[in-house]
Design brief:
Rossmann fold, 9 strands, two-stranded antiparallel ribbon, globular, 6 helices, single chain, alpha/beta, 28% helix
Length: 211
Amino acid sequence: MKNFNRHHHWENIYRTKQPSEVGWFQSIPTTSLGFLKEFNVPVTAKIIDVGGGDSLFVDHLLNLGYKDITVLDISETAIEKTKKRLGDDANRVKWIVSDVTTFHPTEQYDFWHDRATFHFLTQEVDIESYIKTVGLNLHSNGILVIGTFSEQGPEKCSGIPIQQYSEKSMAERLKAFFIKIKCITVDHMTPFETVQHFIFCSFRKLKASQS
């Protein structure tokens, strides 16, 4: 989209809408929590939730005893809302306001979680930047989990185009740095009682000799 300003767009969304007024709202992020359990992610793991602004995933991570949590979002408003919701528990989380395509991590992560951020990147330069950032900043034994709209899902979200993915196209996109573990499809029921078709894929980082 020509002259599209991602930051302004998302600030406007989070300033004008309550959490239950956006399609991606989940009271319990069952799928994401399932991946934590499947990979037996230890409570000492360095976890980053990308695009986790006002998501409740961080609440569940804290309740499960995770000790090293980072939440990144392009919207300061979204993050401030979550901090307020968490109260004193917000001090147990590292908060980063940044566009993920220009994010420069200062540490390496063990578990990189992204539900519904990657599919908003539609320009090649942004997609490549994102993938390179994950590839260079995930530990060698780290796990990447990405959830996007599937090829049967919406073509737009929040009024802007998205990039749909299939198991094949997702694996192809990430093959420079990652090998696919598995993909699952998920039907997400929105607060408006409509169904959005997602695909969630998990990946393990390739060994340095393979990349």
